[in-house]
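yo

u said u wanted the structure for the complex thing, so here. seqs first:
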Amino acid sequence: MQLYKLQYISQIACIIAITLFTSNAFAQKAEPETEFKYVKNTDNSRTLTYSVKYIKGDAKKSSEATNVPISFNTGIAKENTKIVNTNSFGIAQYIIPADQKLPLNNGKYSFSATIIENPLLESKSDSITLIDLGLEMKLEVIDSVKTIVFSTFEIDYKGLQTPVKADVVFYVPRTFSKLKVGEGSTDEKGNGEIEFPNGIPGDSIGNLTVIARVEENEMYENVENVQTIAWGVATNYHIAKFHRALWTTVAPRWMIITLTILLLGVWGHYIFVVYKLYRIQKVSKQIS
Amino acid sequence: MKTFDSKSLLKDFTPEIEKTSIAWWVTLITFIGIFLLGVHALGRQVSEGHIVTGMRDNVVWGIYIVNFIFFMGLSYAGALLSGVLHLYKAEWRKPVIRIAELITVISLLIGPFFIFFCVGRLDRLHYLVLYPRIQSPITWDVIAITTDLFGCILFLYLSIIEDLALLRDSLELNVPAWKKKLYKFLAMSYTGTPEQRKHLSQARNIMAAMIIAIAIIVYSVLAWIFGVTLQPGWHSTIFGPYFVIAAVYSGTGLMIIVMWLFRKIYRLEKYITLRHFCNVGYILLVIGAFYGYFTFADYLTKWYGSQKMDALLIDKLFSNFFWLFIFANYIGILIPIIIIGIRKFRTINNIFIAAIITLLALWVNRFLIVIPTLETPYLPIQDHRIDWIQYSSTWVEWSLSAAGVAVFAILIMLFSKLIPIISISEMIEVEDTSDETI
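structre next:
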């Protein structure tokens, strides 16, 4: 009898376990929306960025997928794999140091990003294949004209440089976005130059950050060169911030004076009326 | 021609304070029910957020702000009318002045709550006091409303001291002990000696003048919340005086409605006569004509200027909001003027109907000031969903609006159980005009 009961309980336990397992195993995962981006930086390091989004339930807009494990691969071998979790913006980023040797395949580098098995999203993989491009920039004053001199070249596995033609865009970062200040192309010799505009506000000593970028190129992807130079107009925001105005933290004097006079006038009369009430009460006390 | 004396007046008014009818309780419970529905709606709004209202990214102000402007307008009109009538010592004012004072204080207590309903983060409301910016019209409004509320309560209190003393000293008054104690405390030992009368009269004259000035300033400040904003239809120099005139217009309408209701409910035909309705009606007529002129001047200059966004806004008013626009700016002005202007139509009931039309038209007018402008921003609305583009109020907003009206009625009902709705002390030397015809 005891054995029969034990067998009965174990059967029920098995059914519950199987039900739970299967319901979990067949839970529908969301299809991810991904974007894979490569940027070669000024110091020759390379940034791989993978953004992951998905549609939550019946929502109309995509949401960022947070804490999803992403496997970045910089070659075919397993030792070239790095796993990074997405942050609260749904972005996983891996910076490949400049001195890291990368395997070449037919003169091209290959990078991939893969969503690893997880309970939220279906697996997905994206890859980029590119030729290594170098971008150099010199900021010079030629005949009193502020000039950006730039060059582009392919780099082979031995480090040899071959000049190539490419389009380059130039930016100066502002508070909310990057201001485009010019664009140009390099010639067959890989050289180009453009004039830098005058009158852009800089920091307190006129420093500006100039960014040269080869952008979303089919062969080279994104390559960037960033430099700082005192070509801007020196701007002291400290003084502008604290003068009396409608939009600063300190109100104009006329406004404070007007408001004070108005409030003192009105509340002064109120106090006088309350004093009159006090006199009414005092009169009756004197009578009694 | 006969005059009223304090004994006959007390005899006429004290039954309402002493006894409470079943009908009164039923009405009170009904209004409390409406108020509780509003509390439920507020609970939903706080727990689920503003998504339960019709307000979205562009139309960030809905009927809550319309109600806010409306109630504040009623309050300022009450203050202006009671202040002006008091200073001019118009004899006919005496039976109706307390109604104006009551409207002032009660509307001023209710109005600001509608601003709280608009605020997404009520937990940060105290920042307005902790980190005020003197440059902001919102800060001016907070200071102005607080100052106005204190002044209006003080003015109301000054006007009821004499009645409180009469009720305290009345031996025939059959009310609970707590009420007697309350009369004694609030009457401040006032016995009506010549010196006390002098102090009271001076205080009332000062406050009457003050509340006129404050009412104009405060309602102009409210108008500047819109006027100083770069939005189509709002950025207008006429907005300050236009709001003041509109406020007095709607407030006068409400005063006629409340007079009519109290006259019917408390059988005050002897005290509130056709003469009073006609006199308040004349104010309504003159203010209505001014309001019509201001409305015409405002829209004419906008239409003639043909600036892109102003033209777009006027097109919208004459298409999507056509009937509302016609009602607010044609029917709401012309019908009251015709009813009061032509002697044949000038009866108590007709003046009451004119007042209802005025009140409704002015609510719609405020709706047309707020909503179409917010639906016509300078930067195009970056959304395709219909409720993001066009405002549509929800049951939550209507419930809270109804709750506001219910609280107004509850407070008036409760006040009428404490103090006579007509000032006995003011009426003592007034001639009886109940047989008079106009």
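Residues 133-237 of chain A form a domain with the Immunoglobulin-like fold (CATH 2.60.40.1940). The mean pLDDT of chain A is 87.
cya
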